[in-house]
Amino acid sequence: MQDMNTEDIVGDYAEHTLTFADSSTRKIYTSNEETYFPDGCLIVSRTDTKGIITHANKSFVEMSGYAIDELIGQPHYILRHPDMPPAAFKDLWDTLNRGEKWHGYVKNLRKDGGFYWVYATAIPNIRKGEVVGYTSVRRKPSLKKVKECESLYPTMF
Amino acid sequence: MSYNFTVSPDFKPDLISGWFVFNTWLQKQLDSNIHLELHNSFKELSNAIDKQTVDLVYSNPHDISRLVRDEGFLPVAKPKSKPDEAIIATSAESNVNSIEDLSSAISIAQTDAPDVNTIGMIMLEPADLAKDELQFIDCATYVVIAKHLISGDAEVGFFLAEAFNELSGLVQKQLKPLISSKIHMIHHALLVGPKMHDMIEPIQKLLLNMHQEEKGRKILSDLDIADWEIMDYEEAEFMIDLMDTLVT
Ligand SMILES: Cc1cc2nc3c(=O)[nH]c(=O)nc-3n(C[C@H](O)[C@H](O)[C@H](O)COP(=O)(O)O)c2cc1C
Q: ipTM score here?
């Protein structure tokens, strides 16, 4: 995946290099700008069985800051924020691989370096008995739960 | 052969005659015997589905999962630009102005419309209330919900957005919407059961052409439906997956 571009970043930022499960790396920039979840909306995306984005709704596009064409065909880790402990995503994939529903609070990285918190649910898409992909739906998280995660997640590295 | 048609019990009372006229029209067009039976509650509808006495149904999104995945129903069409959205409202006099202001035990007035209640519960989550802090008041109609809010018996009510917007001005003035859903992807749909699978294409053709005739346009308008759109199997599965992520 392409590195982030400092020209897209709004405000002061820090630089990190992420290494993903497929061993690829990406240089990213993070700022402290929080974008709040839009009231009444759901952020929806679907992936293939490998986690490559195949569908994203309007709220997804708006919250991530990317254009739709920049999302479709990309791995879902395009949103990976360095403050998210790897154990959270391991749990997500382990749960989905058992054919079960996963819930969790996720801090996501925007194209402009800012972040947004969501309460996410992911499920396998089963067609004729086979998993053909995954759907994730995010809703507005409670502030109290986000605060809890902000203290818990740094202890999970 | 004769078939049974039913309509999700959350239809507005003034649409009843529209559904009967639609049924008569469909019978004539298909040259088949179709009996329309309306059920008074989602529970009654569920019993009818259990007994396999439903062949054609205008279904609430919540029931589509069971119909398609367990009962062999297939999607036929959906009403154009008519998503089911929900509104959580309180009394205009309440000092609650947002969901996050709801901080202690509350009573919720709701109908038995399962999709509206599911969306309502999701929109309530940011208030971070525990299950035992929620009390439910079951209401027969949205007007009854409004009355409970105005009298102060209930703190919040779950409305179908369309129904909220159709409350009289006088009632609406005494209410305050706290949040409205903008999901766009959850909607009713017309489905057929196994006995009618071979009629999907003829029905789709009829529905798509409905708005081209005077009579068809009148029926659509009496059903509050602008037009029909084809709904394919994958779209139904997608909506089922989506609904599945919203129920715990
Ligand atoms: C349906 C679905 C949705 C996902 N949504 C996100 C997301 O919003 N943010 C995120 O960082 N990872 C998301 N992931 C997880 C990523 O695929 C990936 O596991 C994660 O970003 C960590 O990267 P890594 O596993 O390569 O280390 C999602 C995965 C699936 C299957």
A: 0.95
